[in-house]
Amino acid sequence: MTVRVSRAFEFDAPPEAVWEFIADPGRRAEAISVVESYEVDPETHEATWEVSLPIPLVRSTATVETEDVERDPPRFVRFVGTSKVMRVTGEHTIEETETGSRLHNEFVVDGKLPGVESFFKRNLDRELDNLEAALREELETTA
């Protein structure tokens, strides 16, 4: 089973300001509650996430290696993360609006262990809420 969640957010900020946040693998990782720690290679945009999933078969964190596989500044970024427990794909598309910008987000999680997909089915909406809140806070502090 695959879990897929899509949602769009509206901001009173130009696409370039939204891009500065969403194209940064570190900022994306900070917004996700199950990412306990991460490291980012600024040259390659590859990141390693240590993810804590409250499921029976994962006793500690799972290491997720992520990389941006497509970048079209300041409009689109797609990343893929792989680990022993899941494969995650995230897409962020920014479009200019009359009042600022709209950010379309899509996350797809394919679990490799029982419980991973049901965890994300229950929690992906909350993780998108976290991403939106972090981006709004960033835009307010840089405005």
UniProtKB/TrEMBL annotation:
The lineage of its organism: Archaea, Methanobacteriati, Methanobacteriota, Stenosarchaea group, Halobacteria. This is SRPBCC family protein. InterPro entries: Polyketide_cyclase/dehydratase, START-like_dom_sf. Gene3D superfamilies: 3.30.530.20. It comes from Halogeometricum luteum.
